[in-house]
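Record Tryptophan--tRNA ligase, cytoplasmic, 473 aa.
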Amino acid sequence: MADSPNCDLKSLSPLQLFERVTEQGEKVRALKAGKAPKDEIDAAVRMLLSLKLSYKTTTGQDYQAGLPPKDLVLINNGTTKEEDEDLVDPWNVQTSNAKGVDYDKLIVRFGSSKIDTDLINRIERAIGQKPHHFLRRGIFFSHRDMDQILDAYENKKPFYLYTGRGPSSQAMHVGHLIPFLFTKWLQEVFDVPLVIQLTDDEKYLWKDMTVEKAYEYARENAKDIIACGFDINKTFIFSDLDYLGTSAGFYRNIVKVQKHVTFNQVKGIFGFTDSDCIGKISFPAIQAAPSFSSSFPQIFNGKENIQCLIPCAIDQDPYFRMTRDVAPRIGQPKPALLHSVFFPALQGAQTKMSASDPNSSIFLTDTPKQIKTKINKHAFSGGRDTIEEHRKYGGNCDVDVSIMYLTFFLEDDDRLEQLKQAYTSGELLTGELKKVLIETMQPLVAAHQERRKQVTDEIVKQFMTPRKLAFEF
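=>
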């Protein structure tokens, strides 16, 4: 590495700058330890300070040893302005692009694989039916090792599903349904066991709430999950606050993961700092543990070689990149993953929705009137400023939230394509498109509410009781 402070540092990425600072710091320590001449040490220190200044100018943060910026994902969208970059981590999703996050660049950054036509066709051949519209429309767009899962299925080898929910509020919104609706479909077409983790411990650690409140939210969220129609004989739902204290297998896997991941690694992956509580630092191992079948001896008869498939939103991938790295070192198979895009807020695709903002989405507790008001008042429009301009130039489906929501929830492919064409041509006005969305969402939410009413505390208890499921292992 050249020691000249005049070298061009502007072309380096934040991660490259971090590596340069780290390398120079090691050089300074080596020179001091070797009792090098004072002028040589001084020159190396000046170079180190120059690199640290460049790092802070580029990232807006002071350099911290062992805390690289690699997984606080910044994806440049062809601009040089920092505010025009995408930020994706397990707690934040931000983009200045009205179309939403650039998922193709996210695939490259995360090192996952695109779900292409060949994979979708292979899934169709394996299950003997049309793939879910979430696959056909690119809502689940990325994967890790889905080919291995299909190999197992075609060779009649077992696998299981794992997904989860962080119960941050009593009421879930329609975006929270996406992984569960897709997981239910996967469970039905492949006929496999499913475990659902409720990370009430995580929410206690990250949010301003009591342990009791976090557990209460977990049980309430479980009712909404059960209302999606999961088979009680094939599904185990568990609260971390409950299950961790009763399963030796689960805790043993947590400890194994904890031993093989360093503090510097979790700081680098998740952005933890020295001021974060130790609960946060150790939590990733708890989210990793359900990826291993030995965490559920009552279901898998203690077998450790059964692979796991995890459907989740792409922001959860850092947890499972860590898990996949650790798995071979503790004698476990790497989990496979299917990643979904983010469900947009009513105000636009720039951010994920917030459970604390009632107007950011349609909640599963909303009345038909509330749904109508929210869509009419808050759903971001891709239409023109005037009817005349809209008729002449048409609407922009790429940024229109009504079109985005219909892409998730309108199952009829032909109807969706007709709406897109009519809106793009200017034939369909924004108000008319919103009316279609209202008529789609009102019965969907109402039907969910009716199913949820049938979910008693006793049913929740049955789903959450550790037990053997309807499978032999």
